[in-house]
Every structure is written in structure tokens, then in C-alpha cells.
Amino acid sequence: GAGVSQTPSNKVTEKGKYVELRCDPISGHTALYWYRQSLGQGPEFLIYFQGTGAADDSGLPNDRFFAVRPEGSVSTLKIQRTERGDSAVYLCASSLSSGADNEQFFGPGTRLTVL
Amino acid sequence: AQRVTQPEKLLSVFKGAPVELKCNYSYSGSPELFWYVQYSRQRLQLLLRHISRESIKGFTADLNKGETSFHLKKPFAQEEDSAMYYCALRPTGNQFYFGTGTSLTVIP
Lengths: 115, 108
What we know:
Number of helices of chain B: 0
Radius of gyration of chain A: 13 Å
Radius of gyration of chain B: 13 Å
Largest interface: A-B, 28 and 22 residues
Number of strands of chain B: 11
Shape of chain A: globular
Oligomer: heterodimer
Largest sheet of chain A: 7 strands, mixed
Largest sheet of chain B: 6 strands, mixed
Helix content of chain B: under 10%
Strand content of chain B: 35-45%
Strand content of chain A: over 45%
Order of helices and strands of chain B: EEEEEEEEEEE
Number of strands of chain A: 11
């Protein structure tokens, strides 16, 4: 079917507001990753889910960032009290499982701009 | 600490010329290394991984543990190779560390 999808494609918000970014992985993929890519940088790991649980959230920069994946499919990245420094492209990727030989398929990203 | 270094932000070569995109990593264990590519207006996608020892679109990359490098090479560059290339390291678990990327332009 379709690849990884992310909504919205663009989000403009004001400093201090709350935002939610959604990721729809490829059907049947149990592993899901969130990354943040700032201008001129490579993707930066945020969090990894295996099924419904966050197996590794060590990349989340602070407690304003939170992600869920309640049914083991769609995931939502939540950012509270947004700051201008949160402006970036947020990428989601999924893979069939978590092994190294399982290719990550990336979504198109959500471009977040915090004014 | 930065774990993946791509020293060239921009690289231009003429069509038909050899191309090498450099990647150095810092990790004391046995690394898993990858090259990802992003063509204009497309998604980031896997190009190749060192464990597969494969050649994709004419590109190869050899892991050199002594020099902690994983340079990407192609003997004859094509215009369609113009893209952004990222080297990535997976030390353990499921964290991937990406370099800052190299923008390759192949001049016709």
C-alpha cells in the first residue's frame, strides 16, 4: 500500500502553543521512529516504538516532548509550550521490525515553524 | 559527542568523473553503518548498508575500522546522482546517528 504518511505537512504556530504531529506507518510495520531535522543538519533521533511501547525515548530533548502509539500503528508526537528552537522538520520512519537489516521507510516530514 | 562526521557540505563533480563522499565515525564497538539519500523533492531513503556489502546504483561503501571510515564511492558519476547524502551509524539498540549530510551536484 501507501508509504509512511505524516500530517500536517506544514504547521505554523506561536511560541507557547501546543502542537500534535501525526504519523501513519506502513501497515504491518511494528517499529516506528521519530526524528527531528533542523536546517543544515541530519536527522536527530527522538524516540523509537516497538509496537505500542516506547522502547527508547532517550532522544527526546526535554519533558515538553511526548509521543504515543496507543494501538501500535498511528503515532502522535506532542510538543507543549513550543519554543522558537523547536522549529524543524519532524520525520517519522517505520520498519517491519527492529533488526538492523530491516529498512527504515521515511515519511515526507512535517515542517514545524514556531513564530 | 558527534558520532558521524561528513566533512564536505557541498561536493561538485563532472558527469563521468569518480566521486567519493567521506564519512568518519566514532564508536569503539562493532558499528552498523548506512548511507541514506534524498533526491530533490523526495523522501529520505536507504541507499546501502555495510552488512549487505552490495552495490546500489553503482555506489559502494567499504567499512574501514582502522580509519573509522565508511566512504561512499562511485567510479562514474551520473547527473541523476545529484542529491543529498547522509551517512548514519547505529551503535547499539535502535538509535541511529546521522551526519550533517553532503550535497552532491553532478555537472553535465
